[in-house]
Amino acid sequence: MYAENGRHETIWGILRTFHYTDSLSLSDRFIFPKFDVNTNSSVELSPTGYRFLVDLFLKFDKDNDGGLNEEELNNLFIPTPGIPRLWQESQFPSSIVCNEEGYVSLQGWLAQWNLTTFLDHKTTLEYLAYLGFDEDSSVKALKVTKPRKLRQKQGAPKSGKTSLLELFLRGTYSDVYSPTIKPRICAKDIELRGGKQCYLILEELGELEPAILENKKKLDQCDVICYTYDSSDPESFQYLVELREKYSSLLDDIPSVFVALKADLDKQQQRSDVQPENYTRDLFLNSPLHICSAWTTSLHELFIQLVDAAKGPSTATPGLETEPETPDLENIKHLVMAGSAITLMAAVSVWIWRSSVQSSRA
Ligand SMILES: Nc1nc2c(ncn2[C@@H]2O[C@H](COP(=O)(O)OP(=O)(O)OP(=O)(O)O)[C@@H](O)[C@H]2O)c(=O)[nH]1
Ligand SMILES: [Mg+2]
């Protein structure tokens, strides 16, 4: 009866009371259904998938405060082997927006699933199966995007990448500097011009940066590189110049956006062979956007530029002289979910890089 009513957590509650363990298992074909993805395509949640996740959230937010506290989250995950490993690796919930109490908000919950699906759709399929998405298969919760061009982000050490991530998620950042060692990833929806929304995935790779630059396959996952430097530090830009020189064959194919951070501090002449404005001009790219972590509108402008670069890669690819093209709106699947005011479209992933060698100098 409980199974028919979709009350999987109750069934598991009963089984656990009687000391059944996880070895009572679902068939592999059900947990890991076949799902083909073309190269250069990525996987996203379908409207049905989003709707299921919204309903799940609402069902388990028992106190109706718009956030899942630890107990509510644990209850939700009872039918599963626990919070996905991928979530633990991305330091969930620091990867998403939480409410004031630090509980997972609906906005953050959906962003986390969006991130999961982008990074490893098999985890999404597996968990939706545990959570009772569909008695036949969880594949209806997903969709494959059209093959797309590449996109991604990277920057000079100590230039303010982590602060940017913090601001993106929480609207504040810390004055205390601590270098990023382990990669940090976060996802959140942003509003574009005209009110459309999109999920932006930002990643700062920490010490993994050199390894990523040597891994073409990993590089392909990313949409835009955002090169960040500190406009108040005369040594900062040269780092980007050298890095781009060293890896030019890989980096030249990828849409790029240059950003000068810490615009609130005095701008210094960069001690590099070429000044940033000339460097970007020679690559037929926009001049570096001057951003200060405290100016929220300038930040928003940056996030929009990143999405534009992903949507119209030819306008943002180094060395490509092209007429500005209209972003491929076909690719932007604009969906409105029933029962919620959230509109969705393709996710854009952006990586922020730094070199461990350089950081020890910084
Ligand atoms: N004045 C000013 N300081 C900033 C701004 N953004 C970041 N900072 C400070 O700059 C320092 C470095 O910031 P992080 O965000 O940690 O830099 P990072 O690029 O992530 O550094 P690594 O991870 O070591 O490469 C911190 O002390 C921040 O508080 C800004 O817009 N203005
Ligand atoms: Mg950092």
Automatic annotation (TrEMBL):
Its main location: membrane. Keywords: Calcium, GTP-binding, Hydrolase, Membrane, Metal-binding, Mitochondrion, Mitochondrion outer membrane, Nucleotide-binding, Repeat, Transmembrane, Transmembrane helix. PANTHER family: RAS, DI-RAS, AND RHEB FAMILY MEMBERS OF SMALL GTPASE SUPERFAMILY. It is found in: Cell membrane; Mitochondrion outer membrane. One of its GO terms (biological process) is signal transduction. This is Mitochondrial Rho GTPase 1. One of its GO terms (cellular component) is mitochondrial outer membrane. Belongs to the mitochondrial Rho GTPase family. Residues 146-312 form the Miro domain. InterPro entries: EF-hand-dom_pair, EF_hand_assoc_1, EF_hand_assoc_2, EF_hand_dom, MIRO_dom, P-loop_NTPase, Small_GTPase_Ras-type. Residues 48-83 form the EF-hand domain. One of its GO terms (molecular function) is calcium ion binding. It comes from Cerrena zonata. It comes from the Eukaryota. Mitochondrial GTPase involved in mitochondrial trafficking. Probably involved in control of anterograde transport of mitochondria and their subcellular distribution. It is a lipid-anchor; Single-pass type IV membrane protein. The keyword Membrane applies.
